[in-house]
Every structure is written in C-alpha cells, then in structure tokens.
Amino acid sequence: MKMTRITILILVALLAVSCSQPSAEDKWMQFVTQTVGKQYQDFADESSALAAAAGGYCGRDGNPESDLQLLQQQWLKTMSAWQTVQWVRFGPIVQNNEDWRIQFWPDKKNLVSRKTQQLLQKDEPITDAVIESASVVIQGLSELELLLFDEEYTPVYAADDPMAQRQCQLLEAVSNRLKKTTSQIAADWKDPAANEEWLNSIADQDEKQLASLRNGKIVDSILAQVERVKVDKLGGPLGFKNRSKQANGYFSESWRSGSSLENVKHNLAAIKALLAHPDEYDLSDYLIEHDQAELAQKLAASLDSILTQIEAVDADLKVAVTQPQSKAEIAKIYDQVNGLNQILREQLAPALGVVLGFNSNDGD
Fold it and tell me: Which of 211, 237, 263, 361 could form a disulfide with 227 if both were Cys (CB 3.0 to 4.6 A apart)?
C-alpha cells in the first residue's frame, strides 16, 4: 500500500518533533547544571551580604552586642548556603582547590586558632592584601566563625582595647576574601572557558558515554558528601574515629556556633533537592525513565527518615553527644546515613552505569 503525500508529511513532522525533544540525559544534566549554578549564586550572595555586614559592624555607632548578633545570623546564613553546595566535587571548585579556602575543616591541629593569634600579635595592619597572601586556613568560614562566636574573641569588640580594631580589620579582610572567592566560583560555573570539563561536550564521546562520565561525577560527589557526613560530621563527635572511642563535641564541624547538626541537615536536604523537585526534571524522573522507580522511592524514603530524625534532636552535636539520650539519637542518625550510603553505592551507582572511584572516607 502506497503512503499518501499527507501521510508522509505527517511522519516527517513527527520525526522532526521527536528529534528536537531533549533526551532524558540532556534534561537531567541541564537540571544539575542549573541547580548547582543557583546554589553557587546563593552562596555568593550570602557571602556578599556577610562582607557588607562585617563592614557595617566594624564602622558601627550602634549597640555592639545586638549588632554582633545580626552579624552572627548572617554568618549562619552564609554557612548554610555553603553546606547546600558543599556536595559538588566537579567543576571550578575542584580545578582551583577552593574548598579548603572556603572552609578549613577538619582542623585537627587547631590551626585556625593558632594562625589567628600569630597574625593578631603582629604590628602590621591587617588588610585585604595581607589576607590574600595568608594561609588558606584563615581565609574562609572557619576563621570567621572563630572571630564571631568564640568566647575569647567576641567580648573584645566592645572593649576599649587596641585588639578590637585588629580583630575588626581581620574580620573585614576575611569577609572580603570570602566574597571574592565565592563570586568568582559562581561566575566560573557559568563560563565554558572556566568550566570546560563540565559544560562542554567531549569530542570523542557519544551522548551515552558523556552522560555516563557526568553521572559518574555526580554520584561520586553525592557519595563523598554522604560519607563525609557519616565519618567526619557524625562519626567524629560520636568518637568513632578516635582510639578511645570517647564522644567529643569539639570534633563537630561548627561547635563554636552550635550549627553542626544544621550543617548536616543542609547537606542531606541538598541531595533531596536533586532527587525531588516539584517543577523540574529531577533525579527521580531520570530514574523512573530508566525503569528505576522503586530505587527513587527508596532514596526519598531514606532521606526523609534521616531529616525527620535530625529535626527531633533538641541539642546541637557538641552537647548532644555528651548526653545519653541525645547521643543515642545521633548514633541512630549515623546508622541511617550509613544505610543511605549503601543504597547510593550498591544501587544508584550501578543503575546509572557508574563505576565508582576510590574515596578516602569509604568504609564503616
């Protein structure tokens, strides 16, 4: 039977439409690219607000105590923005090794405090240029947490003491450095010349090979973050990393500000945002299209359970690990995160055709 001209035109039109539709891989990668870009921009915006707040505080005519509280609140917002995008282990932040500059942790030898004291005891003014050439240990959020929350430093700002001026110089210079770092990362993420490895296609790879390579970076990054939450952020304070096995709240990530557990919540919420977005083609959509609906549901259930358990803990990690009931709650979260880790490693990676690389945090 011969096809009519109209039938042929319809088939050609349908073929053209089908060819113009983005693939599942394209939609998923576009979502990741946009999500990370927004996370970096949010982080840059909060860092900029922190720098402005630090400048305003140090030039203040108001109440030192209440103004310091406002500055502390802005630090917390900035730290939360960092924890949201901390999972990313590909692109400019890796190429330029900026993560340690943003946050020096774990700080096993108390280097942040030691180097701060060394700098404050010098005679030279603490300028932006001084911090630019200083160690990365004192160029980011860990340094700012020390200056804004540590009881050794916070009373000094309101005192009639020359050290108040030096601390303010340091506070402003480090805030400016963080603003510069985060603004550059946000700009580089959008720039094909600076983010070539992620944004540009690889000439000798077809679409499926390219998707596999990029999925490998995504899964490696998510897994590394979950392992870091388990091993360092929870296991450290619980005492699982030291020989004595004694809990120590000072091993928590942000013990000075009391936001360590909040950090973990933002880490896991960021992964959940990749899995489930109300309006975009997210990881769940991608898994469903690859006949992995059950896996998508399992991941969502695991993340929801952990986040619910975190909300139920009344104290931050520094205190929680020293009290029997709350320590048991943190240990339960640790076990749940370990379960999520196993799902990611044993099920998500194979489902996406990813061969995992070595990670130093791997292991129970």
Answer: 361
Per residue, the 3-state secondary structure of 216-258, as one string, reads HHHHHHHHHHHHHHHHHHHHHHHCCCCCCCCCCHHHCCCCCCC
Cβ neighbors of 86 (< 8 A, separation 6 or more) are 99, 103, 225, 267, 270
Q: Where are the beta strands (DSSP E) in 86-183?
A: none
Give the Cα separation of 131 and 142 in Å (integer).
14
Measure the CA–CA gap between 56 and 140, rounded to whole angstroms.
Answer: 19
* Number of residues that make up the chain: 364
Distance, CA of 229 to CA of 222 (rounded, Å)? 11
Residues 6+ apart with CB under 8 A from 193: none
Q: Which pTM does this prediction carry?
A: 0.91
CA distance 284 to 16: 28
Q: Measured in Å, how far apart are the chain's first and last C-alpha atoms? A: 67
DSSP secondary structure string, 25-41? HHHHHHHHHHHHHHHHH
Residue 195's nearest CA partner among 33, 306, 12 is: 33
- H or E segment to which residue 333 belongs: helix 324-343
d(CA 222, CA 361): 12
pLDDT tens figures, 101-133: 999 999 999 999 999 999 999 999 999 999 999
The one-letter code for the residue type at 334 is Y
